[in-house]
From TrEMBL:
It comes from Thalassococcus profundi. It comes from the Bacteria. Pfam families: IspA (PF04279). Plays a role in cell envelope biogenesis, maintenance of cell envelope integrity and membrane homeostasis. HAMAP family: YciB (MF_00189). It is found in: Cell inner membrane. This is Inner membrane-spanning protein YciB. Keywords: Cell inner membrane, Cell membrane, Membrane, Transmembrane, Transmembrane helix. The chain crosses the membrane at residues 12-29, 44-65, 102-122, 143-162, 168-190. It is a multi-pass membrane protein. The lineage of its organism: Bacteria, Pseudomonadati, Pseudomonadota, Alphaproteobacteria, Rhodobacterales. Belongs to the YciB family. GO terms for cellular component: plasma membrane. InterPro entries: YciB.
């Protein structure tokens, strides 16, 4: 299916809106406890229960408007549903906190599997955005696979050793900033291995 063009602001709102809503709702309800069906749930679990359907709905609307979703978006919504659902069902916030670990380990494993086959799966996804020579794609893929593995380890360290509030800040802002900084530090690689336009 051909991707349809939509307003960039709307696209960003659909992609980031659920995460921002989760953060705001958590700050609002973090100190509260709710009794539902005789079971006590803290604010984090209640916010997670609202985040899962919101994420599914936003992704569904994005697919309806654009006609397509990339693999990362599909994988993310599946893992949000699985781990968020487990957290709510078992009333255990640890499952939702593990979600970024699983996402980044899976990304690292997929990129690593491609490298073992002498291929850059990253190129398949991003070649239209950044025309690079083969050597550049392989080097960027190695660096990104290692970076994703590092993020998985960092997420584990933070949620296991710090407060839930600290983890929410890390998840909302730290991971996003880390990915931005990573690509900014690859400027030299992009320049060195850029494919020159011969047109």
């Amino acid at each position: 299916m051909t991707e349809k063009t939509i307003n960039p602001t709307l696209k960003t709102a659909l992609e980031l809106g659920p995460v921002i809503a989760f953060f705001v709702a958590y700050l609002w309800l973090k100190d509260d406890t709710f009794t539902i069906g005789g079971t006590e749930y803290d604010g984090f679990i209640l916010v997670t229960a609202g985040f899962v359907p919101l994420m599914i709905a936003a992704t569904g609307v994005l697919w309806w408007l654009t006609g397509t979703l990339n693999r990362m978006q599909v994988l993310t919504v599946v893992l949000v549903t699985v781990f968020g659902g487990l957290s709510v069902w078992l009333n255990d916030e640890r499952f939702f906190k593990m979600k970024p670990t699983m996402i980044y380990l899976l990304f690292a494993a997929i990129l690593g599997a491609g490298l073992l086959r002498g291929q850059s799966y990253l190129r398949t996804v991003m070649s239209g955005l950044m025309p690079l020579q083969d050597e550049g794609w392989m080097l960027l893929t190695k660096r990104l696979a290692a970076f994703f593995f590092g993020l998985a380890v960092l997420n584990e360290v933070i949620w296991r050793t710090m407060s839930t509030e600290a983890w929410v800040y890390f998840k909302t802002f730290g991971l996003t900033a880390a990915i931005f900084v990573f690509f900014m530090t690859q400027t030299g690689l992009f320049k060195k291995y850029a494919v020159e336009d011969k047109g």
